Write a sequence for this structure.
């Protein structure tokens, strides 16, 4: 899915750039001239995988934020095309608009029919202008809600793919009721009588992400992030300093393993060495496996119990202290 | 996060001529108001009509029948689950706002009577970490919903929260949006009635969860209500917002709220609604 895409390198990926380019040249030469350079290729591949392992075993939270936003990272439609054998995108909120920042439709996954909804970022500037960088307007949330209701009606599980910097913060969004659209989705998802499987595949940007993100299981890819505010926003508010993004990213505990520990997500889905963008096909395969496992489990639960368990799941979220009332006075 | 402080308190020390009397200066029109008069008007300037923010306790006094409010779960206190290390620690910020407000958290919950009708009450105080929603706010809101289910009482909430999110609690804060919305869903399923009052400011995660899920949504005049903060929007669109953007009146015109109710009439309006529904 990424073959024609120009590969971009983050600052900490730079050591891989030269090696990957050299490797590509060696492979091309082998194919064109039947050069006997196999040993060289193997040696370079080993060096590349060792360097990749080294870099990726000690990533900082801020580096993971950059990976979650990597320009080459697979987006919702990439996974949908790779994982589902059938997908028909459906459009419109039935109120007045269709939002290209959210894609939604009917799909088939290994024979199981389902509803899939995802935030969709663009690949280049032009596409990003159409897709609004994956930042949905109220009509996007309403389209998602409509498709979830259809899932309930037809007894189809709902899969949502989260990848957004946040809900769209422009004037039109406010004029059309952004807060109300997200709130009403949350309420709707809380009571939806069909399984909901949520996967954070890139950026889980605050309320805009959660607007399609309340579910029975919440999975997160290894280098995805999920946060109440962007590190940039947090740095400028709490540190009064845009440069403090490293500190903010660390303080917010926004990486997948940290969120698993806090009980906010249910499973971390591993990515190929070097991140999903190095091997999108492999990333999709691993993700499909996790989806299969959770959908199979969710299917065995009665709808009554499912909605009750979902309530209890969120009921438990939060950490606080309960002091004795006698000590209080 | 929005700060729109409209009143500066002028203490006798700053204005010796005022002697023992306390005066406040309206930041909207600049006039000096005798504090007693100002309090009688529930912090509404009697010259220009602009609203200043009420504390949770003032709000209780405004809305409930005298002596009927019984606070519940005031013993819930924020922990520091992320051990937040920032320019300033969460623990310090909590201590500071506890001292400043006399509250232990931003949401005050309890039972009371309004116009003789028993209700469950949840009031967000915008002075405590800007009325942001951390774990305690979410937990108290869910408990008050559960009390409604048990007693078959209506719920009345009053929202005033600057940014919605409690950054110090990271994604745990975010999840309170889901938690409180799920609790409202339960009220709906069980045929219970929820009146949500939006006051200045109701933004972000608070707006995008329980505040906008009321069966009936009332708002005070001129309140700032919306999802993204005005400054964030201005940075996005690279221009100034028109006057009146994201106010109660703006939302009313767009069908997002039921009624704009003046502060002095809030209790009566809620009582009339309860009288029809009970
Ligand atoms: Zn005034």
């Amino acid at each position: 899915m990424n073959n024609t895409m120009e590969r971009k390198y983050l600052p900490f990926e730079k050591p891989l750039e030269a090696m990957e380019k050299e490797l590509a040249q060696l492979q091309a030469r082998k194919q064109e001239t039947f050069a006997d350079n196999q040993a060289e290729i193997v040696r370079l591949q080993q060096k590349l995988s060792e360097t990749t392992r080294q870099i990726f075993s000690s990533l900082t939270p801020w580096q993971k934020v950059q990976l979650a936003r990597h320009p080459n990272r697979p987006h919702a439609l990439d996974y949908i095309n790779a994982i589902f054998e059938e997908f028909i995108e459906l459009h419109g909120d039935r109120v007045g608009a269709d939002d290209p920042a959210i894609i939604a439709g009917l799909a088939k996954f290994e024979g199981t029919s389902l509803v899939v909804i995802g935030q969709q970022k663009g690949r280049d500037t032009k596409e990003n202008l159409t897709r609004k960088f994956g930042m949905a307007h109220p009509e996007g949330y309403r389209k998602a809600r409509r498709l979830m209701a259809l899932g309930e009606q037809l007894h189809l599980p709902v899969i949502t793919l989260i990848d957004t910097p946040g809900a769209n913060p422009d004037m039109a969004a406010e004029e059309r009721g952004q807060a109300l659209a997200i709130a009403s989705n949350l309420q709707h998802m809380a009571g939806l009588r069909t399984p909901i499987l949520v996967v954070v595949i890139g950026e889980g940007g605050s309320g805009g992400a959660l607007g399609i993100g309340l579910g029975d299981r919440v999975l997160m890819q290894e280098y995805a992030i999920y946060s109440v505010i962007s590190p940039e926003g947090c740095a400028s508010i709490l540190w009064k300093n845009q440069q403090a993004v490293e500190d903010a990213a660390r303080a917010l505990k926004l990486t997948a393993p940290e969120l698993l520990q806090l009980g906010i997500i249910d499973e971390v889905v591993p990515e190929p060495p070097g991140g999903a963008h190095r091997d999108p096909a492999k990333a999709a395969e691993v993700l499909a496996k996790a989806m299969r496992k959770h959908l199979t489990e969710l299917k065995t639960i009665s709808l009554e119990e499912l909605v009750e368990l979902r309530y209890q799941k969120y009921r438990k979220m939060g950490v606080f202290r309960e002091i004795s009332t006698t000590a209080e006075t | 996060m929005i700060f729109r402080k409209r009143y500066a308190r002028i203490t006798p020390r700053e204005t010796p001529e005022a002697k023992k009397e306390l005066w406040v200066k309206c930041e909207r029109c600049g006039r000096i108001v005798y504090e007693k008069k100002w309090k009688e008007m529930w912090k509404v300037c009697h010259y220009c009509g602009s609203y200043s923010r009420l504390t949770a306790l003032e709000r209780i006094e405004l809305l409930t029948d005298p002596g009927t409010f019984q606070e519940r779960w005031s013993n819930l206190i924020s922990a520091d689950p992320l051990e937040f290390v920032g320019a300033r620690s969460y623990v310090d910020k909590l201590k500071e706002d506890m001292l400043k407000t006399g509250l232990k958290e931003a949401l005050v919950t309890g039972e009371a009577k309004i116009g003789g009708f028993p209700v469950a009450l949840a009031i967000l105080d915008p002075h405590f970490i800007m009325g942001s929603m951390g774990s305690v706010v979410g937990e108290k809101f869910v408990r008050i919903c559960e009390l409604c289910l048990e007693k078959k009482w209506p719920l009345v909430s009053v929202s005033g929260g600057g940014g919605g999110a409690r950054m110090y609690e990271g994604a745990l804060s975010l999840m309170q949006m889901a938690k409180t919305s799920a609790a409202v869903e339960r009220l709906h399923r069980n045929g219970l009635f929820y009146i949500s009052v939006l006051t200045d400011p109701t933004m972000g995660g608070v707006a995008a969860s329980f505040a906008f899920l009321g069966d009936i949504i009332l708002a005070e005049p001129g309140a700032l209500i919306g999802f993204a903060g005005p400054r964030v929007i201005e940075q996005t669109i690279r221009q100034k917002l028109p006057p009146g953007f994201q106010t109660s009146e703006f939302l009313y015109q767009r069908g997002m709220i039921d009624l704009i109710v003046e502060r002095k009439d809030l209790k009566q309006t809620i009582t009339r609604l309860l009288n029809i529904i009970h």
User: Anything to note?
Assistant: The pocket of zinc ion is lined by residues B 26, 28-29, 31, 45, 47-48, 50 (CB under 6 Å). Chain B touches chain A through 67 residues (CB under 8 Å). Chain B has two domains: 18-52, 53-277. Residues 18-52 of chain B form one domain.
